[in-house]
Design brief:
Elements: H1 2-31, H2 34-60, H3 75-104, H4 112-141, H5 146-152, H6 157-185, H7 189-218, H8 224-235, E1 242-252, E2 255-263, H9 270-287, E3 293-299
Parallel strand pairs: 2-3
Antiparallel strand pairs: 1-2
Helix pairs in contact: 1-2, 1-4, 1-6, 2-3, 2-6, 2-7, 3-7, 4-6, 6-7, 8-9
């Protein structure tokens, strides 16, 4: 369900941005607006990013191989990191470059009403794309706030689309303000200032995305509530005396590795231990279907085990 929602949000944003990019470039050519040109490049960067997310999602579904026994799910993280680089270089740096030249040598805008009309239409389309992303994110974010959702989501697509769409909408408002002030004052420097603001906005979003995606690439544990649920299921399994240690790692957004050392009784037989492990694994998968790979190591908790005499009897 989460993957389907992410794909829907990505496709909606891609279709919207392709149409918006064409209209922005036409308006930029007709008006000479630097902020409009920067917004056109911004839409191209966003469209490229959404295509990259779709490619990453498709490649992540490949079956495991001998070289990659845990599969290719992390490709979604890799492509999300590339998205941050594209947004920073093509979107942010270009807008800063264009804004600097516009401020240094401002030129009067021609046919500004065309730019205003295109920006208003683009705002409507971006608002719909953002609405779709918010709607899909609400299905999986639970009670978490938006900042917490972006920071702790293990699937990269929705946070990326949310930040991109929010940044695009704010960028359009800045461009509209720059064009409007340039027309009202007769001074095109406001168009350049708006372009610089758009560039700075895109750089900030790209840095945030890069930082969050880098953490996913390094490898993040399950969410705290998920770890608690795993621990609860382990200690409630008959035959498990306790959890000595527990480690989790996301192999991908919907693929979780669970590794734990569990304490068992000192007189348990091999068949009993195997049955206990099977039961514990089933319990974990029942409450957490994303736990696709589980390794449980039985051991004796030396801290609580009774002392044995030379004949192996308890004292």
């Amino acid at each position: 369900m989460a993957a389907e929602g992410s794909t829907k949000a990505v496709v909606t944003a891609l279709i919207a941005n392709l149409g918006i990019a064409v209209s922005k470039f036409v308006a930029a050519a007709m008006t000479g607006s630097a902020s409009m040109l920067a917004e056109g490049v911004h839409s191209v960067a966003d469209s490229t990013n959404q295509a990259l997310l779709l490619i990453g999602g498709k490649r992540a579904r490949r079956a495991p191989s001998a070289l990659h026994p845990f599969g290719y799910a992390r490709e979604r993280y890799i492509y999300a990191f590339i998205v941050a680089i594209v947004l920073f270089s093509i979107g942010g740096l270009y807008a800063l470059y264009e804004g600097y030249h516009k401020v240094s040598d401002p030129h009067e805008l021609t046919s500004p009403l065309i730019a205003v009309a295109v920006l208003i239409i683009a705002i409507a389309l971006e608002s719909y794309a953002l609405y779709t992303a918010v709607k899909e994110a609400n299905k999986v974010r639970g009670s978490r706030g938006w900042v917490s959702f972006v920071r702790h989501a293990r699937a990269p697509e929705l946070p990326v689309i949310l930040l991109e769409d929010a940044g695009a909408l704010l960028g359009l408002v800045l461009a509209l303000g720059g064009v409007g002030l340039s027309v009202l004052t007769g001074n095109a420097i406001f168009d350049g200032i708006a372009t610089l603001c758009i560039g700075a906005l895109l750089v900030v979003i790209a840095v945030v995305l890069a930082a969050e995606t880098k953490s996913l690439l390094i490898g993040e544990a399950a969410l705290p509530e998920e770890i608690t649920a795993i621990h609860t299921e382990l200690v409630s399994t008959p035959g498990v005396d306790g959890v000595i240690h527990l480690r989790t790692l996301h192999l991908g957004p919907e693929e979780l590795l669970v590794a734990a050392k569990i304490a068992i009784g000192t007189v348990d037989r091999g068949a009993d231990v195997a049955a206990t492990i099977d039961d514990a694994e089933a319990r974990i998968r029942r409450v957490l279907p994303t736990a696709t790979t589980i390794y449980l190591e039985p051991d004796i908790d030396r801290r609580s085990a009774p002392a044995l005499d030379s004949a192996g009897h308890t004292g």
